[in-house]
Write a structure and sequence with these properties.
- 2 copies of one chain form a homodimer.
- The first copy, chain A, is built from 16 helices and 2 strands.
- Chain A is mainly α.
- Chain A has one domain: Orthogonal Bundle (Farnesyl Diphosphate Synthase), CATH 1.10.600.10.
- A two-stranded antiparallel ribbon of chain A has the order 1-2.
- In chain A, helix 1 runs antiparallel to helix 2 and helix 15 packs antiparallel against helix 16.
- The longest helix of chain A is centred in the middle third of the chain and has 31 residues.
- The interface between A and B is large, with 58 and 58 residues.
- Chains A, B: It comes from Nocardiopsis mwathae.
- Chains A, B: Belongs to the FPP/GGPP synthase family.
- Chains A, B: It holds the Pfam family polyprenyl_synt.
Chain lengths: 356, 356
Amino acid sequence: MTSTPSSPVDFVRAAVDSEIAEFTERRRAQLLEIGPELKPVMEALEAMLAGGKRLRPAFCYWGWRGAGGGDIPEIYPAAASLEFLQACALIHDDVIDNSDTRRGLPATHKRLEELHGRSGWSGSAAGFGQGSAILIGDLCLAWSDEMYQGSGLPLEALRAGREPFDAMRTEVMAGQYLDMLEQVRGSESVEASLRVMHYKAAKYTIERPLHIGAALAGRYPELAGVYSAYGTALGVAFQLRDDLLGVFGDPEETGKPAGDDLREGKRTLLVAETLERAAADDAAEFRRHLGDPDLTPETVDRMRALATGCGALEACERRIDGYVAQATRALESPLIADEARSALADLIVAATARKH
Amino acid sequence: MTSTPSSPVDFVRAAVDSEIAEFTERRRAQLLEIGPELKPVMEALEAMLAGGKRLRPAFCYWGWRGAGGGDIPEIYPAAASLEFLQACALIHDDVIDNSDTRRGLPATHKRLEELHGRSGWSGSAAGFGQGSAILIGDLCLAWSDEMYQGSGLPLEALRAGREPFDAMRTEVMAGQYLDMLEQVRGSESVEASLRVMHYKAAKYTIERPLHIGAALAGRYPELAGVYSAYGTALGVAFQLRDDLLGVFGDPEETGKPAGDDLREGKRTLLVAETLERAAADDAAEFRRHLGDPDLTPETVDRMRALATGCGALEACERRIDGYVAQATRALESPLIADEARSALADLIVAATARKH
């Protein structure tokens, strides 16, 4: 998602970026003191952290503001800490899915695999890449809570924030496992797809960051409900939009080859809806192509036509509209501080707009 | 390491075990609420946590007592949290090393691989096992600091403990990377082997747990030096003993097939000393067999004879003796509270004794 200069994501981006840079710089010094050979570890980690939309920090920040928190410097490192968790999730996800690229660049394990190849080391380059990526993800996960605890917010506030912070970590990892499980089970149900989306994306990307913001401001009990209503609806809408972009999106904007999610066989709601709505022959054809790593552009076009023709795309769009309406209604709550309400409304548009 | 009933490890074991059980029970409920299919995740995690010597919690506890901390209930969950970090390290290590067993039982990724096979799911069973193990390790890592922060110790004490706690996590992951790197570089130097041991084992197993205990008791600045002197010396001695057991140990006690470290090609100090001390022909023979997964018992015996004959075993034993003497001298410091001094002395014996 790109943003206009005045967007609520841009509002936090510069401060979040500089907190990440400063924290990373200290960790770089610490690692290089242990051994100069750790430089490639740091470089891979920095490359991963340089990208990203800062969406979770933005929701954390606006969740804090919506709960009456002020624009103080200490909220930024606390919010930025979520980017390290996200870096861990992406790095490990790419190992698990065996994905070669991330945002158009080599995935972390590919970077280290290439280092192994270039260096003429012994053993398996792929194994070295994967092992390194596991450890780099672990570092990111450890550094996430290190940055959170070290943000400088009062210890009591940090303690209050731990409840949603901890729940979020468990939920995203459980969601990833369920996602993997649905893939190997070949699950095709709309319900299974929605459950994975709920834990892996909706709660993790939006609801929990908002909860953390509210808890840090000491208002988790009052705001949990309204932020959940807004966050889970918007979270699912955001993921649905992302899934549609994975199939219909412009490679220049997604950073992935066109139709890549179809090649990977990702079990999205669009897939579930297509298999449910298409005529038996069409569904069988779609199912046969799904997950074929060698899909031609023509077949990708054919699959798109099937998803569109049977009404699956339209069903997903209607669902997005429904969730957007839910999220919008949730914002009417008088519990949310005014200065945050319009930012949270803008975030709905930014997270779900058709064109990016 | 086994312990007599009155050992300083046994002193903490029951309380540490019950803290782990209680914490795990709550997490089990949380996971099963997300999805009943997460049961195997919990079972794998519980199996991993059921084993283990509780060595790190013991050093954390006695570090706390040595710094004047009392025998209060809140120190136990803080100390027990280190077992979750260790569970993460072992689970991920087994994926990285592709080790099928851990303590004589299937490694975590093998458990989940078997679940995949039994269930007749699609896709790669090995891939599913590895992916699951990555996520289960991540859960353990997140739960480690969750348990630490939730121990009930005063927030200021927990903040003080974060410095060594955070340093420890970075060090152990950096140490694992360096270990992997030395393997693929085919490093044979005594120095490289000692550096890996320093970060991956000595600091992580003994020095940092002691530091955390001292910091929680508010006495990190005074005690850091003496605990480092004791901890790094004993930590290296402990790892050397472990390495010798990996080659010369009784499979019944190590839980690994005899000579398994030789089959894995583990670059230990014993290996470095052997390659450095043996005659050229013998060193070449040893090097040729090292890392051969199909080593016969006869060849294992031959390699043992080579390591013994050239004086490498004796050199390692002398080194252990030297480190034990250093650790013992460090305990003379009047900074260490009397009630902990004899426990820390017993821990030297427990961690480095030849026969277990």
